[in-house]
Write a structure and sequence with these properties.
The protein is of the alpha+beta class. It has a single domain, classed as Gcn5-related N-acetyltransferase (GNAT) (Aminopeptidase), CATH 3.40.630.30. Helix content is 28%, strand content 44%. It has four helices and six strands; from the N terminus they run ααβββαβαββ. Strand 1 and strand 2 form a beta hairpin. It catalyses: N-terminal L-alanyl-[ribosomal protein bS18] + acetyl-CoA = N-terminal N(alpha)-acetyl-L-alanyl-[ribosomal protein bS18] + CoA + H(+). InterPro entries: AcTrfase_RimI/Ard1, Acyl_CoA_acyltransferase, GNAT_dom, RimI, YpeA/RimI_acetyltransf. Acetylates the N-terminal alanine of ribosomal protein bS18. One of its GO terms (cellular component) is ribosome.
Length: 132
């Protein structure tokens, strides 16, 4: 997971942050091909609210629909565990992820100005929700 996270993001999660997500309120799923991890998702669920913490696909296999499969599973699992909505935040520059989320029904509900560090200083986080 750390190798994929580091390869896919300019500001990846640390090993400690990833390890912290293997606890009571989290679900971690991976998508494998020939015993090779291609991508993963991390969600936190508190009662009926689900937060998509991270969804990450190895750059070597991006564009093959793996992100879509992971997101579809996140939605299915949220519903199966009595979730009523999924919340997430995404970098404003991550147009591929924003498009994926919008195609799945997520809508922008707000922004956090200058939330993410970037090479040019900081960029906004777009807050999105999917409710059913």
């Amino acid at each position: 997971m750390l190798a994929i996270e580091s390869a896919a993001h300019t500001h990846p999660w640390s090993l400690a942050s990833l390890q912290d997500c293997f606890g009571r309120f989290y679900r971690v799923e991976g998508l494998f091909e020939n015993h090779q991890l291609l991508g993963f998702s991390i969600v936190q669920q508190i009662i009926d609210e689900v937060t998509l913490m991270d969804i990450c696909v190895s750059p070597t296999v991006q564009g093959r629909g793996i992100g879509r499969l992971l997101l579809d599973s996140v939605i299915t699992q949220a519903k199966a565990h009595a979730g009523v909505k999924i919340m997430l935040e995404v970098r404003q520059s991550n147009l591929a992820a924003i498009s994926l989320y919008q195609k799945s029904g997520f809508v922008e509900i707000g922004r956090r100005q200058g939330y993410y560090p970037s090479e040019s200083g900081a960029e906004d986080a777009i807050l999105m929700d999917l409710s059913w």
